[in-house]
């Protein structure tokens, strides 16, 4: 228990920026860290898990609200981990079209170390 708490304290002290960012399909995301720190991606999701409270869209097609790209986290980590800045495009061409005719979004949870 003590080593687990110590680890949590160390992570909290060394991490000066963190957050969760969401952009709608077709948009760009820009992540950056303060001087001397680099990005670490905790998790990423490209698809749709919510109704249209996130990235509303006027599509007349039925929308799938339970679809995600299974490679989202790995892809975003590959593109961003260890970098000071990272540009991402929320696009089917990068993450695949896991739910055809559904308007998707990219959500990234990250920290700077």
From TrEMBL:
Matching Gene3D superfamilies: 2.60.120.740
Span of domain SUEL-type lectin: 23-113
UniProt keyword annotation of Electron transport present: no
UniProt cross-references to PROSITE patterns, sorted A to Z: SUEL_LECTIN
Keyword field contains Signal: yes
Keywords, ordered alphabetically: Signal
Signal peptide: 1-19
GO molecular function: carbohydrate binding
Stated name of the protein: SUEL-type lectin domain-containing protein
Record organism: Dreissena polymorpha
Organism placement in taxonomy: Eukaryota, Metazoa, Spiralia, Lophotrochozoa, Mollusca
